[in-house]
Fold each of these.
Amino acid sequence: MPTDTPRVVGQRIATARRTRRMTQDDLARAAHVSLSMLQKIERGARAPSDDTFDAIAAALGLDPARLLTDHHRTESRVHDAMPALSAAIAAYDVPDDGSVRPVHDLHASVAEAVNWRLAAQYLRLATQMPGLLADLTRALHAAAPRDRNEVAGLLVSGYRAADAIAYKFGHRDLSARLVELMRWAAAQAGDDLLTATVAYVRTETFFAARTHTAGLRALEAAIDDAPAPGPARAIAARGALHMRAAVIAGRANDAHAAERHLDEARQLGDLVPEGVYAGTAFGPSSVRIHEVSVAVSLGDAHVQRALDVAREWEPARDEIPAERRSGFYIELARAQLWGGLRDDAFESLKVARRIAPQHVREHPWAQQDIATLRRLKRSNREDLTTFAEWLGAF
């Protein structure tokens, strides 16, 4: 694997800065570094420390991983953050005596973390979530009764953001613990819609254990307990559960249940505009993406359905979060590979990488499909080999 030299990093920083029409002075001030240091970094004369690198990336509005080509460096930094994340959640009921941030300030930080999760900016999450979870835990224990439900709801969102990196980077025990803490915090919030959101996320544990039938039972129980459709947020909560149930029913090879839940999701999706509700994207476009997911989950004769959807529709950039759009193309690539459309499958994976590179790097299907493409008498293609090296799929 190639490593990122100071020169490569500097060039990427300079390119990102110019794209945003920032001068070196603008970026130096925004990142709180000296102009001379930034000039040396852009020239490749100096390698930035992780803290300086993160500050520059934040000033550019980028996840640090966007400025790196070395997958191992990104991955190692995420894994290095896991002990601090574990420590933060271990103290969920015994927070330290640090300062307590105002609730409005916590709202802003949690909203930022949710945006990072939806955009698959996992390195940013990994470096920021331990501190934010500690802040939220202190705030919950110090909250006045009138604020307690609100802060507990923020903590649910914080745990979910942390779970995104734990689950995708293979820390499944930590992920399961975070899901349980989400359930605990949702109970503190006293919000049935948050409870539905947690049930949606909890499905990860069933995917990881490959207990799909049990996962379907859990989701159907959550649907029964969810508030009746009314406001958009309630419609979206129930609709998202049906979307998730359709996919896991497909994994359980229960085509009847998959179609039933997909139909329910489609009807509910038609009632609200596409958007992010309580941290979950839902609406007509999200349902269509899940239609592809269900077809891929069921496989065999259903694969053509995924190809038909993609032939006439693609997710709009300004409508669907990056992680979900990337996931659409990863699943489409699998359907195309099964359908014998090898070049199309590779193109779909390249689109997914442009949308959310970290998401593609950590997705097992992307690695499996690239490895399969290389085996199918295509190993001499330099671009395919380069992509496989970037993924670490050998």
Amino acid sequence: MTGSRLWPDTQLLEDTLLLVWHDALQDGWDGIELMQGCAEGADTIGGNWARRNGILVRDRPADWEGPCGPECQPGHRRRNRRGTEYCPLAGHRRNQGMVDEQPRLFVAACYRKSSGTADCARRARKAGIPVLLLETA
């Protein structure tokens, strides 16, 4: 799953995950896992929901402070509120890594047109992975 850091509707997301889980079980899938990007908001809500329900969670955090990728331009690193330098493209690399794992479905909880959520959903669709989009203003 992927989602906005400011996702406001815990119940909607948890209900959606429950329905997706139920449908997968009904279709004969076992070994169901939830992969999430470890950000605050929707990712955390989804991870907590899965753990409460005994579902394996695969955490895929972005390596914000780690080395840059070949797509990075010199001098593009920024400083966060704590003064730590980070790569602003780390989230995109994490999103692509999640897509590269070829999940059966992405649940995308998008609030206020979140650019990170939209990026992950776009990458999933491009890879032929279905995306169940939840949107709220």
